[in-house]
Amino acid sequence: MEMINSIGRRKSSTARIYVTNGSGQIIINGKELKEYFPMPMTQATVLEPLKTTGVEGQYDIKINVSGGGFKGQAEAIRMGISRSLVKISEDNKKPLKEKKYLTRDAREVERKKFGKPKARKSFQFSKR
User: Fold this and answer.
1) Structural domain count of the chain
2) Which of 3, 28, 67, 103: disulfide with 63, CB 3.0–4.6 Å?
3) What is the reported pTM?
């Protein structure tokens, strides 16, 4: 197997994923997974597609991710890894699709409108 690449997006984050055969090493922006995402919750989010398909430790994954916060980045990476696993084997599609890892979550932050303190919040109304 040569290098397989895919893209994952979530909120304003974009993750480019490169998967090759290897020993299960995950490098994100030049750092190890545990160094880039110190919180166990976000580490679990990144590893979910590998656990679902049962291929932990079989592939080396190199990731370039930009934009957004840690949660959006982790979910973008999860989507990209899922897409790569489907490219590797079509058998992986059903379990990943059931858990909705292949679906793009298109929810974005709504922009702030002028004359309001936030996107929808209004200033307090006073009748008198």
Assistant:
1) 1
2) 28
3) 0.91
CB 72 within 8 A of CB 12: yes
Residue 96, SS3?
Answer: helix
Q: Is 32 a domain residue?
A: yes
**Tokens 């307090």 sit on residue:** 124
Instruction: Return d(Cα 70, Cα 117) in angstroms, integer.
Output: 26
pLDDT the model gives residue 1: 73
CB 67 within 8 A of CB 14: yes
Query: pLDDT digits over 76-94, tens only?
Result: 999 999 999 999 999 999 9
Residue 37, domain extent: 4-98
